[in-house]
């Protein structure tokens, strides 16, 4: 718990510093107007990274620098510390942009932490670029890009919007927000929640320290958490999701569904049923609403099943178990619940 709270604190601090940085005048700006950038490589050990392909911005790299604990420094003092303690490089070669901010020292006993700097970058590039980003001390923001995006941070959150292509990111110290993006999304955090909205394609989301919020997703979706609840609304395609530490609330489902929890109750409202429904609940009760006019094969077991009788059912209908077909059979619906099951049809 202490480790999780520390990671959460670091993530919140990095988000605040990021917002403060972007609202300031850059310490330095390097123009990229004459370079056809196709790949972006960024590494910083003490700041945040933002890469944008939004139209209307002149291609450039804005550098933001502040002192330890967000200390305000003069430009002369910043230059002095950079020259003495840091390696700061911005270069372009073979259509590749390379941005580096790194301490010259390893942080040994002779390192004065009061001289530490946070060096962040906000980069404007053409839309069709690949990115390779890494920071150990800040958040990462990407928007309006189309390509292969690979990024990681151990000390901040991830913010992704309007990306198309291969999207792979991870953080061990913050939350994840992804929106309006698609094709192939793979995002992971060990220290925060995940909120995904208006995305499509192959989507994999994983957190071991927070909740999942899924809204308006289409495609093949695999989303799991070991430390929080799951909320999903308006999902099409296929959803495989599970938690060992919270409740599950799924509404307006129009998909194939596999959901599980060992630490809470589950509410599932199916507008449409895909190829299958499979629910496994060992820590609470289940509320399940199914469409009444669809052919299904029911295999339901619970401590107690509460349901009104339905038309066109054939098979066994008992207090703790229902096994049979409805409307001639078809889509398999399997529920295994340790608590009660409240079954309704619409």
Automatic annotation (TrEMBL):
One Pfam family it belongs to: DUF4097
Entry-linked InterPro entries: Toastrack_DUF4097
Ranges where the DUF4097 domain occurs: 69-336
Cleaved signal peptide residues: 1-19
UniProt keyword annotations, A-Z: Signal
Keyword Signal assigned: yes
Keyword Signal listed: yes
Name of this protein: DUF4097 domain-containing protein
The species this protein was found in: Mucilaginibacter frigoritolerans
């Amino acid at each position: 718990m202490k480790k999780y709270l520390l990671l959460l604190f670091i993530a919140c601090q990095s988000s605040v510093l990021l917002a403060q940085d972007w609202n300031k005048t850059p310490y330095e700006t390097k123009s990229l107007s004459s370079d056809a950038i196709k790949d972006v490589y960024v590494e910083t050990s003490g700041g945040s990274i933002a890469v944008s392909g939004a139209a209307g911005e002149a291609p450039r790299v804005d550098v933001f620098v502040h002192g330890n604990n967000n200390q305000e420094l003069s430009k002369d003092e910043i230059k002095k510390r950079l020259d003495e303690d840091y390696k700061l490089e911005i270069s372009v070669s073979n259509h590749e942009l390379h941005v580096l901010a790194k301490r010259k020292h390893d942080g040994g006993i002779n390192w004065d932490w009061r001289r530490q700097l946070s060096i962040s970058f906000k980069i404007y590039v053409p839309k069709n670029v690949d990115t390779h980003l890494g920071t150990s001390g800040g958040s990462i923001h990407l928007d309006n890009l189309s390509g292969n995006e690979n990024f990681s941070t151990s000390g901040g959150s991830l913010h992704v919007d309007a990306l198309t292509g291969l999207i792979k990111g991870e953080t061990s110290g913050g939350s994840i927000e992804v929106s309006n993006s698609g094709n192939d999304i793979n995002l992971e955090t060990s220290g925060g929640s995940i909120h995904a909205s208006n995305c499509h394609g192959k989507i994999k989301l994983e957190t071991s320290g927070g909740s999942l919020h899924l809204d308006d997703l289409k495609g093949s979706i695999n989303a799991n958490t070991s430390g929080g609840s799951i909320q999903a609304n308006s999902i099409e395609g296929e959803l495989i999701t599970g938690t060992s530490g919270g409740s599950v609330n799924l509404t307006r489902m129009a998909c194939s569904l596999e959901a599980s929890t060992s630490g809470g109750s589950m509410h599932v409202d199916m507008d449409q049923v895909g190829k299958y429904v499979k629910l496994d609940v060992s820590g609470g009760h289940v509320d399940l609403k199914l469409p009444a006019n669809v052919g299904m094969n029911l295999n339901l077991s619970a401590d107690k099943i509460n349901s009104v009788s339905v038309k066109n059912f054939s098979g066994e209908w008992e207090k703790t178990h229902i096994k049979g077909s409805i409307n001639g059979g078809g889509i398999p619906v399997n529920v295994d619940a340790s608590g009660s099951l409240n079954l309704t049809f619409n």
